[in-house]
Amino acid sequence: MSFFIPGIQLKINQILNNECIKYEREYIIKYYAVDNYLYDSNLIIEVMGDYWHASPLKFNANMYGLNKTQLKDIKYDKQKHTYVKRYL
Q: If 0-12 CB within 10 Å is exposed, 13-18 middle and 19+ buried, where does residue 29 land?
């Protein structure tokens, strides 16, 4: 299976590889997939796009002007974060 890997994800993977950090790309946690799971430290790295995930650093807090996809992704990201934090 072949899929597109964004440039920032490639950079993160390269850093992890260069530092000999063991990780799994697209690690599955029951209902959700995370970008990278670091085994030895039990940490997750998510590489989320500012636009689609409506980064609060780029968009205002009241979510004015966001499209339906962005609003849906915000809700999904919150659910994912809560689940992963609770069960990982």
A: middle
Kindly report, residue by residue over 16-43, the tens digit of the pLDDT.
999 999 999 999 998 899 999 999 999 9
Q: Is the pLDDT of residue 72 over 60?
A: yes
Instruction: Please answer whether residues 43 and 32 qualify as being in contact, where contact means their C-beta atoms are separated by less than 8 angstroms.
Output: no
Distance (Å, whole) CA 86 – CA 62: 27
Residue 85 has φ and ψ, to the nearest 5°, of -65, -35
Write a three-state SS string for 65-86: CCCHHHHHHHHHHHHHHHHHHH
